[in-house]
Amino acid sequence: MERGTQIFQIVGFKNSGKTTLIERIIQYGNSYGMQSGTIKHHGHGGGPNVPISDKDTDKHLKSGALYTAVEGDGSLLIQNHSKDWSLNEIIEMYNHLSLDLILIEGYKHGSFPKAVLIRKKEDLGILEELSNIQAVLTWFPLNEDIKFPVFSVNEPALFIDWLFQFLFGHEHHL
After folding, report:
1. Taking Cα atoms as reference points, which of 122, 110, 106, 126 lies closest to residue 48?
2. Residues 6 or more apart from 50 whose CB is under 8 A from it?
3. Where are the domains of the chain?
4. Mapped to the 3 state alphabet, what secondary structure does 32-73 carry?
């Protein structure tokens, strides 16, 4: 794409529809030949679930290797258990890949442009807490004066059209 790799966050509270929306964005981009990568913040306490086994790479980690990687049938799994990764460090790693779009799920307080999903009226306070909000998606009609474009989660195509115009400056239609 003309603008290089674009980065956009999708944030909201648990069960607000973040993953479903990201899936739709990826599918839409794929239909135009775009390559996307995602970064998900595991905010549920503890580390993310990874396959536990007695395979060689696990033995390498237990022996003190900082990183292990295993490849098979086109899948690559890289593990590191000794470092807390910042969002910027993960993005730096992704910059070595040929991606058109990096979608970040979570990391609410990240500084990248973001859309906020609002499931309940009580969640509206998050709009005052976060920076770089570009759009809001809601599960209910908003009567409040919102200074961002507002979309219904029931019409994701409207948001996705807006998003690709915002990021890449072209009109696409689903």
Report:
1. 106
2. 79
3. 6-44+83-168
4. CCCCEEEEECCCCCCCCCCCCCCCHHHHHHHCCCCCEEEEEC
Q: Which pLDDT score, from 0 to 100, does residue 141 have? A: 92
- Return the pLDDT at 174: 47
- Determine the pLDDT at residue 28: 95
6-44+83-168 CATH? 3.40.50.300
Give pLDDT < 50 ranges for the chain.
1-2, 44, 174
**What is residue 1's predicted lDDT score, i.e. its pLDDT?**
38
Sole residue written with tokens 């969640």: 123
C-alpha torsion sign, points 15, 16, 21, 22? negative
> Cα(133)–Cα(143) distance, rounded to whole angstroms?
19
Residue 6: burial class (beta carbons within 10 Å; 0-12, 13-18, 19+): buried
Tokens representing residue 39 in the block? 């970064």
What's the pLDDT score for residue 49? 52
162 Cβ contact partners less than 8 Å away, ≥ 6 residues apart: 135, 149, 151
Question: pLDDT value at position 84?
Answer: 80
